[in-house]
Amino acid sequence: MEYLEALDYLYSLERSSAKLGLENIGELLNRWGNPQSSFPAIHIGGTNGKGSTCSIISSVLSSAGYKTGLYTSPHLQSFVERIQIDNKPIQPERFGEMMEEVAGIVAKMGGKPTVFEVATAIALKHFEEEGVDISVVEVGMGGRLDATKLVNPVVTGITNVELDHQRILGDRRARIAFEKGSIAKPNVPMVLGLGSAEVRRVIFELCKEVGAPIHLVDEVPLTKRGFDREGQVYDIRYDGEEMTVETHLLGHFQDDNLRMAIKVLELSDMGVTSESIREGLAKVRHPGRMERVSDDPLVILDGAHNPSKTDALVRSLNDFFPSEFAFIFGVMKDKDVKNMLQKLSGVGKRFYLTRINYPRSMDPKEIGHLVSGISGDLSYELAANPMEALRMAEKDGKKNICVTGSLYIAGYLRSFYKEPVAWDNHNF
After folding, report:
1. Please, what is the angle between helix 92-106 and helix 3-11, to 10°?
2. Domains and CATH numbers, the chain
3. Handedness of CA 375, 377, 383, 389 (dihedral sign)
4. Are 66 and 210 in contact (CB under 8 A)?
5. What 8-state DSSP symbol labels residue 74?
6. Is the pTM of this model over 0.90?
7. Rounded CA gap, 192 and 46, in Å?
8. Tens-level pLDDT at each residue, the chain (428 residues)
9. Pairing mode, strands 291-295 and 379-382
10. I need a labelling partner for 343 at 20 to 30 A (CA). Which of 110, 180, 242, 401 fits?
C-alpha cells in the first residue's frame, strides 16, 4: 500500500467492531510472530506527562548508545510520528508496506482490531525488524486492557492519576488508578508518580498482589535552579552523583516528568551514565507541549486536554511568559470543557473557537455558550478551522497567542510553522 492508502485502511477500522480485552491484539501479534518478545521495554502509563516522560527516557537511552524504539500517541502532524527509532519516525513507505501485511493478517482474524491495536502491532514489528536494544512504550488509555500491555517491561511507571476518559475508565480516581496500575507485572519494578493517598493505596495493593517492587518519584532529589523561555536548569542526583542538567523542555510540569524519567533509568539496569543523562536532556524535544513556534507574534502550542493539564499550562504561562494571552481553542466533546475554559480565563479574556473535521470535535458554537456563561469579561469569535482562527487573532493584533484544548488542534497549526514528516489525508 501507498502511505495514504494505508491511512485510509487504518481509519476504516471502526471502533464499534472492537472486542473489549486483549484478544484481538494478542491474536494479531501471535500471527505476526510475537515481535514484542524480541526486545525489552520500558512501559509508562498515567493520565498526564507520560508522553514527555517517554521522550526524556528515549533521548537519554539513545544518547547512551542504545538503539531505542519509541512508541507514543497520539501524533501531532503525521501518523508515523508515533513510531520512532532514535528520534527518527518510521518511513511512510515502510509504514504502507507493513499496513499491507497487517491487512492480510486481519482478513484471517475472527475479530477486527482497532486503530490503536494495529498501530501498536506495527510499532512492535518495526522495532523487531530493526533490532532495537530497548523500546519505550507509552500506554494508550488505561492499562489493564491496553494493547501495549503485552510488551515485556524491565520497568513500568505511572506518572499520575487524574479524571480523564471517565466514560471508559470510570468516574472515580480509585477506579482509574486500578485500570492504570494494572500494567504492573511480577518482579518488574514500578515507579509511581505523585498522587493522592487513595490512588497510591490502590496501586500499592496491585503491586503487592503481583509481586512488583514499587518506588516513588519522591525518592529523586531535584531542585530547579532557574528557567526562562529557552529552557530550564536543574540540580539532580543520579546514581549517587550530584549534577546540573539543562533541558529545552518548558513548563513546571516537566519537573515531575524528569523525576519519573530519572528513577526509571536508575532501575532499568541499562548502565546509563551521568554524561548520557546530560546529553539526552539537552537534546530532548516534545512538540506540542509548551512549544514556542513563533516570537512575533508569540505563539505557544500546548495540547492540554483536561483540567489538570490546563492548570499546569496556566501556571507555566504565568511564569514563563507573563502576559495576557488570546486563546485559539478547540476541544473534544467528552472533556470537562467549562472547567478548562474557567482556568484559561485567568490568563486571557479573548477566545477564538474552532474545531477539526473529526466526529468527536465539539461544535465551536457550543463552546461559545460555555464561554458566555463563565464571565461577561470574556469574548469570543468562531472560526471554521484552526488556521482561520490564527488569522483572526493576528488581524486583531494579538501579540501573545496560545493554541490549546486538544493535541489535534495544536498539530493542525504546527504544520503552518513546521514541515510534517509526511502529509496525511486525515487531520486527526
Report:
1. 40
2. 3-283 (3.40.1190.10), 291-417 (3.90.190.20)
3. negative
4. no
5. S
6. yes
7. 9
8. 999 999 999 999 865 455 668 999 999 999 999 999 999 999 999 988 999 999 999 999 999 999 999 999 999 999 999 999 999 999 999 999 999 999 999 999 988 899 999 999 999 999 999 999 999 999 998 899 999 999 999 999 999 998 654 454 555 788 889 999 999 999 999 999 988 889 999 999 999 999 999 999 988 999 999 999 999 999 999 988 899 999 999 999 999 999 999 999 999 999 999 999 999 999 999 999 999 999 999 999 999 999 989 999 999 999 999 999 999 999 999 899 999 999 999 999 999 999 998 888 999 999 999 999 998 899 999 999 999 999 999 999 999 999 999 999 999 999 999 999 999 987 54
9. unpaired
10. 180
230 burial type by CB count under 10 A (0-12 exposed, 13-18 middle, 19+ buried): exposed
**Bridge partners of 247?**
232
Q: Cα Rg for the chain, rounded, in angstroms?
A: 21
**Beta bridge partner(s), residue 135:** 41, 69
Residues 149 and 185: their CA atoms lie apart, in Å, by 10
Give the cell for residue 370. Answer: 460555555
3-state helix, strand, coil in the chain (%, to 5): 45, 20, 40
AA letter at 227? F
All three cell numbers of 161: 492519576
Residues 259-273 as b or e (16 or more Cβ within 10 Å = b): bbbbbbbbbbebebe
83 with 90: CB under 8 angstroms? yes
Place of cell 497567542: 401
- CA nearest to 242, candidates 229, 225, 227, 256: 225
